[in-house]
Protein 1
Amino acid sequence: MNIFENRCAIHPRPQGDEVFWHSSIKRAARGIRCRVLEHTIKNNGGYLSQACSSAEIFASLYLKVMRLGSVPSPITPSSFPGVPGPHNSGYFTGADYNGPKDKDLDRFFLSPSQYSLVLYATLIETGRMDPDGLEDFNKNGSVVEMIGAEHSPGMEVMSGSLGQGISQAAGIAMARKLHGETGRIFIFMSDGEFQIGQVWEAIQTISFYKLLNIIIYVDINGFQCDGKMTDVMNIEPLEKRLEAFGMRVYRIDGHNIEALVSYGEIPSDGRATVILCDTCPWKDIPLLKSRYPKFHYLRFNTEEERERYREFLSQTNGNTIKSSRKKPCRMGKKQA
Amino acid sequence: MEILSKVHAKNLVEWAKNRPEVIVLSADLTASTEIDLFRDTYPERFFSMGIAEQNMMSFAGGMAREGFYPFVHTFAVFLYRRAYDQIAMSVAYPNLPVRMFGFLPGIMTPGGATHQAIEDISVMRSLPNMTILECGDATDVMSVLDVAHTVKGPVYIRMLRGEIPRIFNTPMILNQSRTISTGNDITVLSGGICTEEAMRATEALKKQGLSIQHMHISTLKPWNDLSVLEAINSAKYGVITMENHSITGGLGTIIAEKIAEYGLGKKLLKLGLKDTFAHGASKAYLMKEYEIDAMSLIKAVEKMMNISLKITEEELGKIYLAPVHSKAKAEAL
């Protein structure tokens, strides 16, 4: 089946029907890849491999695993409110896109902000952000920043400096525990972050204080800025290392929707949970494989290369447009 | 001079009694930063974070976002040097009310270069949203919690411990210096432990007929103290700053900036570590070696006024020297 079938339609949150949520997640994952691909072609650059590897993780979290408050209608991003400080009363974070906060609702933390584009695409696919919002990406004065900050859609802490997201989320998890809140803390992490000392400091703290309200999903795509992780700085065997630190660890196929959903729903056994998701950084966009071993950021080397991606997108376009209901994304121009 | 022992330890317990939102984080220096009594009194509000300052700072930021007031305690160096990026992004950027208690500022420890926070003011002052306070006596240590509590954003405090003299009868107030002596030949501006040291010298200078304005600076950022500007403006010969810190980026630099900004056109002599690291030795030895002792202030006055005063060490008031080994401290550091 072509990955771009039913692409870019807006998918409502599943209502409990097993078949329905599975297909919703599948469609949303395709939509995420599609939007990021379209964006990458248009802007001659983008974090495309991150979309390939993590689309199912994001879609599963947002459509099934996490209990988030609903957003009445897709939010149109406001302009940058200025940095926080004593004289800025109009400051806001991007947490609104994840719905209102409540003691029994979950909270989401994107740890590697380099995945922001994937998160924005997810918010669009799940009806939380207006599709036009992506037009603001990396534009002056916009909150839809390339490396998202806490004012960016779907975000509420500063996590662009890798390794700090988990510690901040752990502090929030501790605070929620002390306040008797039952909502959980979901943290999306990348495998590269496990090279960072602070991450292990945070893991030992989560384990020591039994912060069982934390569930971490890790995108193990095996690549980082400089190339293959095992060549840059090995972190494996990651599951054994994490287990030795006192975590409950599952290692799954990160494109398997059933696994992504079911392992996130197993009640805690007294340890906080880490779900290691093995993924493929060129999943469903085989053209990208030629970039091996450098996938961190895709910028087209030649106009011909860009054209190949454009053709790849347009070959699927006809199918997609027919089946899209609202606001299909379309290369090069905005759909009315 | 009255000497008090373990001032912070007792004061924090009393101060936090009816403030359940105040929590304390420790990085394996619980007794050394005088939070052992807090731990024993309010164990449910005490969090041992281990020797892991980077996680501790980001974790504190997370707790502050949920309504807590994290009071982070460790030696000053391990806060700003080890966890600078975490302070910047997890605490300062979001302007969160995390209180950082940095112990052993400057050359106060025989622990040597690894333990001596000699550029903390300089580094922390560069951070937007950061407030910086420095304690110089027991009254400062007791009142700094109230001052910090009025600040919505993060506060970094150069803290004192163990046996501490009481110099002031009035509490620390944000952005208000305290005048120790008045005069118009030279204005001496000191902070932290240098104030007590400067007082030895100013007494001797006054006996020689000199007119010295001496002011104690406890707020380093934000800096907005008009009384100090007036004192600078009325100093006939100039201004001398004296700080337990590098002369780059600390009190001396702040005053230099203000003199230039306000066009005061006064000479400035900066006493402090002259762009150098220090080494492990006693506080008294290091203050003399790095010229932040009373005699160095006398020499600076002589230089600025181009006079010779012939004051001897014996004439300088006896300063209280806390013993290196004492029951008031957990270790000899």
Protein 2
Amino acid sequence: MPVILATDFIVFFLAGAIVYFAIAVRKDGAAASAWREIRKNRLAMACLAVLALYFSVALLDSIRYRDPVLREDGVQARTEKGEAIYSAQSLSLLDRAFEGMRANHEKTYSAPFAKHLFVKENVELPDGTTGREYAPLKHPGAHWLGTDKVGDDVLFNAMKGVRTAVVIGAGTTLIIVPFAIFFGVVAGYFGGVLDDIVQYIYTTLASIPGVLLIVAFMLLFGTSGYQGGLISEGRLSLGVFVWNDRLFWLALILGITSWTDLCRLIRGETLKLRELEYVQASRAFGVSRPGIIYRHIVPNVMHLVLITFVLQFSALVLAEAILSYIGIGVGPQMGSWGNMINNSRLELSMDPVVWWNLTASFIFMFGLVLPANIFGDAVRDALDPRLRYR
Amino acid sequence: MGPVIKIKDLRAYFKTPKGLAKAVDGVSFEIPKGGTFALVGESGCGKSVTALSIIQLVPEPAGYIAGGEIVLNGRDIVPLDEREKRGIRGNKISMIFQEPMTSLNPVFTIGDQLMETIVLHQAKRKGAARKAAIEMLAKVHLPEPERLFDEYPHRLSGGQRQRVMIAMALACKPDLLIADEPTTALDVTIQEEILRLIKEMKESTGTAVLLITHNMALVYRNADMVGVMYAGKLVEAAPTQELFRNPMHPYTIKLLRSIPGQEKRGKALDTIPGAVPSAVSYPAGCHFSGRCPREMEGCASIEPPLVERAEGHSVACHLHDPGFMNKPHSKPLRQEPDALPPLAVPPSERETILEVRGLKTWYPIRKGVLKRTVGHVKAVDGIDLSIKKGSTLALVGESGCGKTTAGKSIIQLIKPTNGEVLYKGADIATLGERRLKPFRSALQIIFQDPYSSLNPRLTVRETIEEGLRAVKPGMGKEERAEKVRSVLERVGLGPEAMSRYPHEFSGGQRQRIGIARALAVDPEFIVCDEAVSALDVSVQAQILNLLKSIQRDFGLSFLFITHDLGVVEYIADEVAVMHDGRIVERGTTADIFSAPKHDYTKKLLSAVPKIDSRLADLWHLPGLGAVK
């Protein structure tokens, strides 16, 4: 039985957008010529490959279903009314593909590729006495990035964090960009009262401490949401769609609190563009205002959107970590780099230091943000006719 | 006594992704004490890089001085170390720049900035430096120097700031003052005051001046010696009177003949085909080969040296080298006719196409929380104009006089506050955007800045089609493409331009695209808002010729908004002089220029530097006789 979360739609939307562009590139047009430009840039193509890898992990982790519960004789269990009973746990394709990693629990910390636990514990020695030893692992050498406090595989946890990061980054951006472009362009182009209103809204939003707003919002909406792990009876829907998804609320509120910066930039740029002569020439033809905005203003502010998106992406992933720390981020059962970084605070104060949790989350985050930066730059350059044909 | 500064075979190169750009490729000249040497040429020919090389400020690391000597008072300053060079800059050689609005730091007072140089180079104490600074402010004729000393730059006008810059530059009594386009950003009446000041300061301190400009008339009035630069080289150098009486290099002659003026009315202006070669790929021989109207077979491969051919008059051209002319490679490749084609004047029609009555455009000044209107900026304050079909009315005035606002108010880009704009008898000033639509195609505008007037993200075809889509929605795709092709051809661009983006074109070509955009919708009246002001003189000539010919072919009426009176004398039938939002004088071009009545008009006309119009008769390309 499939389970679809609200945040899955963000991932599916991204997948749809990728398919759309792939089709657009096949036809000859602006997209095709931009793609030819990007293809010339080898570094950008390498980054695209890395991004594709990340995205496929996120996509695999977004397709999940619950297994039917089987009776001892192998027949599917049913309720008295004859409805099929499904497991409370919904496993994604990613979980199933890396079943070994997911299920290979140890007792507690172990270093990467270790054969023994990281801490001594009481073990029964061959001579029958009890001594303190580094106990051997159940799956020696299987944990490439070690295990965490509760013995889960760190590499698998980091992979589970990919979807969270992609959803936070992309979901928040999907909220920010339309808001910021709409309000920024309206304020900048029309000016007057509309400008005053938009400025009033974003000044107000910006003057409320963001964390406070997010906490209040999450306590209002997010506490009862799905936090990963089991789909339980009661407050949560047992159906196919799970709308009340805590990660979705998080992306929403992060979007609401962070569109103001981009909006301010776009407003300023629009104020400048509005007075440029090609806009005036357009007005002299009697082109309608929506027409001018669509043809002359929006394409010329897109570079701001792209730069802001790329810069904000890493900030959003970090915001998720901070919010997890104060207990309103994603739930502890949902893999996230924020949670991993959070846990490593205590681990770094241990002696010897448990470094692999932090390292793993760092490498994964770095591996996403850097290629996203480089690829973003390449896209921006490819879309800018001034930089072409040089 | 030797010259103050002697430049010998100076070369300044830049490393660029496309190759080595030879911005300055062997320039030699010298300036005596108290002399003024003017370096003229079009943009990109290496004038400014020459100046920066002399003051040892070529932008590193991309640029460097590749060779030559800069001998200041007998000592070559090129090999000096950075510490010694700092001692020379601002002290022995100082510089003033084009843009007075940005060359002073807005967060320091005038006094602080002026004292900085004095303290640095003259090792004076603060008190003494203050005294010297105030003295300098008085010397450049700034009012109340004591009070100005503690003012911030934003309190000063452009002209006053340029005076402060001059005071700073001359505070240490330098041996050489480099003035890089010192008046280009200033109004013509202020321009004259600044030049007079430079002259006066030069006479009192004995400083030599290197004047860099693109304005030939300015050179004629203010320089002792002139050097003409083209593509990194000095092609001709002579005492000013000699150069204007007897220009020898075909480039100099062409340049002089492309300057618009009264004496050229009814004739086409001279133009130079093609574009200045890129600094990374000069021709092996003469850099002007390929564009020269008198090119010979050997020109592209044999470089002409700069040789003195008359008293103090050097020229780098094979035409004046008897040795070269005797050899077979002097066979002419091209022989452009010397005489310029006449430009048929359209028959003057009596029909008035556009009339403006009592036009006012006021901007409210709002203050306070409730934004109450406390007053108005009267940008245009009641003007009357009338333009006849097929004729050109010039609206002249200094910056800030409201001429651009007036132009935009007439074609309803800015809604006027009051007054009537009658287009063929219909008042369009009161119409809303929807009812204005039928008039939009008839009234068009061409802008000044060829860079900001085209959307960088649209192809030329999309740009030109935009107007057609808006005013003729019923037009088919094929028909539209055909129209775009035909207007592009009319302005001298091929159909291959359609799919290209604006940045692939030069400034002059962009201006042609801007003209094509306006022409595409079949207008009857075009506002040319400083349409040729940002262009180099030879490109300006091409655009003026183009405007004249489309006016003749389509019977267009132009409202020509400009501050350049030479252009007005050349192109306009009638002139309206604007000052502080009002029109102070109106009349035919001949009347206004020969007998101005209003004081402001007189002041404006007398401030414009002009080349003696009789000299124009002397500017002829060397004919076959000279070739021999």
